[in-house]
Design a protein that fits this description.
By secondary structure, this protein is an alpha+beta fold. The chain folds into four domains: about 130 residues, Immunoglobulin-like, CATH 2.60.40; about 80 residues, Immunoglobulin-like; about 80 residues, Immunoglobulin-like (Sandwich); about 400 residues, Alpha-Beta Barrel (TIM Barrel). Helix content is about 15%, strand content about 25%. It contains twelve helices and 36 strands. The strands form nine sheets. Strands 27-28-29-30-31-34-36-35 form an eight-stranded mixed sheet. A five-stranded antiparallel sheet has the order 1-2-3-10-6, with no helix packed on it. Helix 5 packs across helix 9. The protein binds beta-D-glucopyranose. Its EC number is 3.2.1.-. One of its GO terms (biological process) is cellulose catabolic process.
């Protein structure tokens, strides 16, 4: 089937709909026009289970009376030629109570310029039987401020709470210090210091839900504690090594005289602002200074790595080559539990250190050390993890906003509480035979190239910003011989234009060459992390080919960008870095976890059209509405991880673990308790349009949870659209 899903000159985007059914039915079947233009339209049929038992398999039908015809569809088996009958696919036949399934299609209009018709959706699932079901409300709680000195006056609001039935809601509050309140908003003053959890219970008269918010109340002592700062002349070296420490940059707002006490991590201690210390034996030492003003104190730490020049796995050019790749048991179990997922459950995926707490792990999630220990158990000697916690993280979007902010001193915390502990763990000699691949800060430096109109990115472009964080991370990891750092290089659909490509190479090369070890601090760069851009656009290989008198790259879809795929982009990125002075040993990685683009919409040959946009739309395997659509797309599993797939490319890797969401779909989301900063980005809303191009939809899948959470439906779509087919073993790419 040819692909004509999108990218036409869309006259307007309409979201008019007709709901056929009453609340007594098993499901409401809704026909929505997503977009329309003079001669055609795209539409969605949504089947929402409003009954009180699960739907197992569905079939619906519809018929146009104005000459309109459907031309192609996705996410359902559609048969017939007006009337049409659609039945579920394997993965979307079961609709649990309150959930919905949907499928989409494109069609031509009966007469040019007419409004897209909205036909009645029929089918036994859309009617008959059942009793109205009451749905529980969904509670949401917010508070301002959430920290401060006692007495602390706090305003609470539960106005984000929702009820699917539109029932009137009542609210009762328990403020966590024994007092209670009522109402959608409430005010309470905490008189004593302490950590409190305020809980709101939202009721619709018969069912309830709760939400909570934490409040930290502190005591004002009158004395301002000092601020400890630590640095060292070197971060380590070969044993024996003398390291000079300096805490003289520490300060005290009250100008109290300060005293310094040091713990060097090898059993010895010291005093004074600038001691030197001899480390005789190899190891990883956490050095801590405690700075006191006589009343209060503050601490700062750094990690010193001392190697014994002869030990450790020999550093190699390509850590993926001839390596035993680690399998993350946590991801593997989730994949294996999905129908069809067992076929890929033994594949390496990256472990994301996406917050400080991820390093240590929790009772339900493995920490960094747990993974490395498990790698030893597995006999694996290649472990890949992602460094992803910069202050002002994800500055141009909302889905993966992080725990640290530059304005709140996030850079000091990033260094001391995030990078230092990571460096300490990965430098443990116990892991010296594991090639530890560190993927450095996805999306960060590229945002400084293209998104400086966004205030959070502007801030990240300055002091205590992304450059400083990445420099610190590379400096901390570079001395560790078995760590291989790959810095993010976005993807072709973001930086491929000449006007972005050159500045991006300048910026990223500048950061790398500014590190202590310069080019030696990295093994290379990675493209397409967590994105969907194809590895190769098999039928569009020449961006300058003329079709209808215009170059292919000038089509609506490519918008004059010469790089259509990651192979061409990654290889050119490396060439440009080598031209900047990088050694030819640097290698590229391509994240191929979700850029397969198989399934029924994949073209089988190049188009013969002489109309440029038809030619491109019918030939391209990338079926997104727009190359900027990044959230929960209907992509497919791509090439399985493989070393040396192309010259200059070290490996295909799966950095974004397939099945993990890119961001929450629902604008009325509940906070993620682990990552409360994560928000809803409109690019994750299937009903929204691309934020940069309002003429095209986001293409995001519905019902997705917060970024990083397991998204079963998304995983099923990836399996369904896999390319190469999943039964094909890992191996070198066909081209
Ligand atoms: C999320 C992370 C998550 C990662 C991998 C990112 O988008 O922000 O929390 O670990 O994806 O799924």
């Amino acid at each position: 089937m040819t692909n004509r899903r999108c990218n036409f000159a869309i006259a307007s985007i309409l979201t008019i709909g007709a709901i056929y059914g009453t609340t007594a039915q098993a499901a409401t079947c809704e026909y929505l026009v997503n977009s329309e233009w003079n001669t055609g339209f795209t539409a969605t049929i949504k089947i929402k289970n409003d009954g009180n038992s699960a739907i197992n398999g569905w079939q619906v039908g519809w018929e146009y009376t104005d000459g309109s015809r459907m031309t192609n569809s996705w996410n359902a088996n559609v048969t017939g030629t007006n009337p049409y009958t659609a039945t579920n696919l394997g993965w979307n036949g079961n609709i649990s109570v309150g959930q919905s399934a949907e499928f989409g299609f494109q069609g031509t209009k009966g007469s040019t310029g007419a409004n897209a018709q909205i036909p009645t959706v029929t089918g036994s699932v859309c009617g008959g039987g059942g009793t109205p079901t009451n749905h529980a409300p969904v509670a949401a709680a917010q508070a301002t401020p959430t920290t401060g000195n006692a007495p602390l006056a706090v305003s609470f609001s539960a106005s984000g709470s929702t009820d699917a039935d539109g029932d009137a809601l009542t609210y009762s509050w328990s403020f966590g210090d024994g007092t209670t309140g009522a109402g959608v908003t409430a005010a309470h003053t905490y008189s004593a210091a302490g950590d409190y959890t305020a809980v709101v219970t939202v009721s619709d008269g018969s069912l309830t839900d709760t939400a909570s918010v934490n409040i930290a109340v502190t005591t004002e002592t009158g004395n301002t504690p000092p601020n400890a700062v630590i640095s060292s002349d070197v971060r380590g070296g070969k044993a024996p090594v003398v390291v000079a420490f300096d805490a003289s940059g520490s300060s005290d707002a009250d100008n109290d005289p300060l005293t310094y006490s040091w713990v060097f991590g090898d059993g010895s201690t010291g005093t004074g602002p600038t001691p030197s210390h001899l480390f005789s034996d190899p190891g990883s030492y956490v050095v801590t200074v405690t700075v006191s003003d006589g009343q209060d104190s503050d601490q700062a730490s750094t990690t010193i790595t001392v190697t014994d020049g002869s030990s450790g796995a020999a550093r190699v050019d390509n850590p993926f080559r001839d390596a035993v790749w680690y399998v993350n048991p946590e991801w593997s179990a989730k994949a294996a539990a999905e129908p069809g997922g067992a076929s890929i459950a033994d594949i390496n995926t990256a472990v994301w250190m996406d917050r400080i707490a991820a390093i240590e792990g929790t009772s339900t999630a493995m920490g960094l050390r747990d993974h490395l220990n498990e790698a030893l158990v597995q006999g694996a000697n290649m472990f890949m993890f992602v460094v992803y916690d910069l202050p002002n993280r994800d500055c141009n979007a909302l889905a993966s906003n992080g725990e640290l902010l530059i304005a709140e001193g996030g850079m000091a915390r990033y260094k001391a509480e995030y990078i230092d502990p990571i460096a300490e763990i990965v430098s443990d000699p116990a892991y010296q035979n594991i090639r530890i691949v560190a993927i450095i800060e996805i999306d960060s430096l590229p945002n400084l190239v293209t998104n400086l109109d966004v205030p959070a990115c502007q801030e990240a472009n300055g002091d205590d910003g992304y450059r400083e964080g990445i420099t610190y991370a590379l400096n901390a990891l570079a001395p560790i011989d078995n760590v291989y750092a790959y810095v993010d290089a976005a993807h072709s659909g973001w930086l491929g234009w000449d006007s972005n490509f050159g500045p991006a190479v300048d910026l990223i090369a500048g950061v790398v060459t500014g590190t202590d070890e310069g080019w030696s601090s990295i093994a290379g760069f990675i493209t397409n992390t967590a994105n969907y851009t194809p590895t190769v656009e098999a039928y569009l290989t020449n961006p300058n080919l003329n079709v209808g008198g215009q170059p292919v790259r000038s089509s609506n879809f490519y918008e004059w960008n010469s790089y259509f795929d990651e192979k061409s982009y990654a290889q050119e990125f490396r060439n440009k870095m080598i031209a900047k002075g990088a050694p030819s040993t640097i290698g590229m990685l391509i994240d191929t976890g979700r850029n397969g683009w198989g399934g029924t919409g994949r073209p089988g040959s190049v188009s013969s059209s002489s109309d440029l946009n038809t030619y491109v739309n019918d030939s391209r395997i990338d079926r997104r509405y727009h190359r900027g659509n990044w959230c929960n797309q209907s992509g497919g599993i791509g090439y399985k991880p493989w070393a040396d797939p192309y010259p200059g490319v070290d490996a295909f890797v799966w950095v974004k673990p397939p099945g993990e969401s890119d961001g929450v779909a629902d604008p009325d989301f509940e906070q993620d308790p682990d990552d409360p900063a994560k928000q809803h980005d409109p690019m994750c809303n299937p009903a929204s349009n691309n934020t940069d191009n309002p003429n095209v939809g986001t293409g995001a899948l519905a019902d997705a949870p917060h970024a990083g959470r397991w998204f079963s439906k998304g995983f099923q779509v990836l399996l369904e659209n896999a390319y190469p087919p999943l039964d094909q073993p890992a191996g070198p790419p066909a081209q």
